Amino acid sequence: MADEESQEPELNDKQKIEITKWFLLNSPAGEIQYVAKDIQAVLKDDNLYNLAALEAFPLYNKSHMICLEIPGGVGDVLITSSGELSETEYLDPRTAQVAIIDHVKQVCTEVRPATDEELPSPYVEEFRCALDAEIIKYVDEAYPKGICSVYCIGGKDVEGPGFDFELAVVISAARHSPQNFCNGSWRSVWNVEFKDDLQMLEVRGKLQVGAHYFEEGNVQLDASHECKDSTFFQSPEDSAISICNIIRHHETEYLTSLQVSYSNLPDTTFKDLRRKLPVTRTLFPWHNTMQFSLTRDITKELGIGK
After folding, report:
1. N or C: which end of the chain has fewer CB within 10 A?
2. 230, β-bridge pairs
3. Are 99 and 211 in contact (CB under 8 A)?
4. In the prediction, which pLDDT does 1 show?
5. Each residue of 19-65: pLDDT tens digit?
6. Cα separation of 53 and 42, whole Å?
7. Strand locations in 107-266, DSSP E?
8. Nearest CA to 222 among 25, 89, 49, 15?
9. Poorest-confidence range of 85-94, 138-147, 294-303?
10. Furthest-apart CA pair in the chain: how many Å?
11. In what order do the strands lie in the sheet with 107-113?
């Protein structure tokens, strides 16, 4: 009777779906397919799994800004909120093409030309192209396997000076090495507001770093950083150079701070986690505890003799 009362109640379908989504969404970079396979084996219900996967995979793909190859070898497309036209359609502004995505399989199934309504005006495109060219050079130098793209996310119909518009720079770099028990990713999004009335550019960045080491253990890093900066509104080429310099400065500064922080771990955090040595600065001899006698030490300290 007691055993029956102590048993956990059976999870309903809604709870199973929510738990499945949680595991999928919290998968480390590059590992969602491995997690999905294990979940299917545990859940043993394809219908429930499919319902959860259809919700979780699009969110995961966008948050991790995964890169997929466009059919025909014409380039790659980043799966980001900045380039999302619909749940399965994502714009690649560099090639002016729209990729149709299968989120669960994480593949690009087909591609179509972008319409004029989906692309920015020639005036805005001039600024976008100039910035894209500078960012490509920076990413090639800074991230060996990095992918980048520049999107117009506001005011894409602006035809000339006198109006504001906004661009978004997206940088994604991943290194997946499951055979060596480690995966990692870098993601940064930079929103650049072109404010014509103030003749200023306001730059806001969000940087995210993730890493997972799982050889004989499970250690994860999930760090993020936000920053702001500004520069003058100039020609497309000069504005692009100024924006790229701002991005380079802040990303380099953040990476340096991470390296310093983690290089000091043995002397700071890890040291605080270890058991501190006694005042004698010697380890306790667990192999020969008989040499210590609390009664003898107290007697000697208090000067009590027989």
Report:
1. C
2. 202
3. no
4. 46
5. 999 999 999 999 999 999 999 999 999 999 999 999 999 999 999 99
6. 15
7. 107-113, 146-154, 165-177, 182-195, 200-213, 219-232
8. 25
9. 294-303
10. 103
11. 89-92, 97-102, 107-113
Structure token pair of residue 11: 């999870």
Do 60 and 73 form a contact (C-beta atoms < 8 A)?
no
Distance of CA 2 to CAs 11, 96, 104, 218, Å?
20, 67, 44, 36
265: its two tokens: 């771990």
Rg (CA), the chain: 28
Q: How far is CA 169 from the centre of its chain?
A: 15
State in Å, rounded, how far the first CA of the chain is from the last one.
Answer: 61
Question: Amino acid identity, residue 129?
Answer: C
- How far, in Å, CA of 197 to CA of 233, rounded? 10
Look-up of token digits 């043993």: 44
Name the one residue in this structure whose structure tokens are 């806001």: 204
| H or E stretch covering 155 | none
What DSSP letter does each residue of 252-291 carry, written as one string? HHHHHHHHHHHHTGGGTHHHHHSPPP-TT-S---GGGGGG
Gap between the Cα atoms of 60 and 39, Å rounded: 16
Q: Which two tokens stand for residue 304?
A: 């009590």
DSSP 8-state class, residue 84: B
The strand pairing partners of 68, in sequence order, are 77
| Residue positions counted in the chain | 306
Alpha carbons 106 and 78: distance in angstroms, whole number: 11
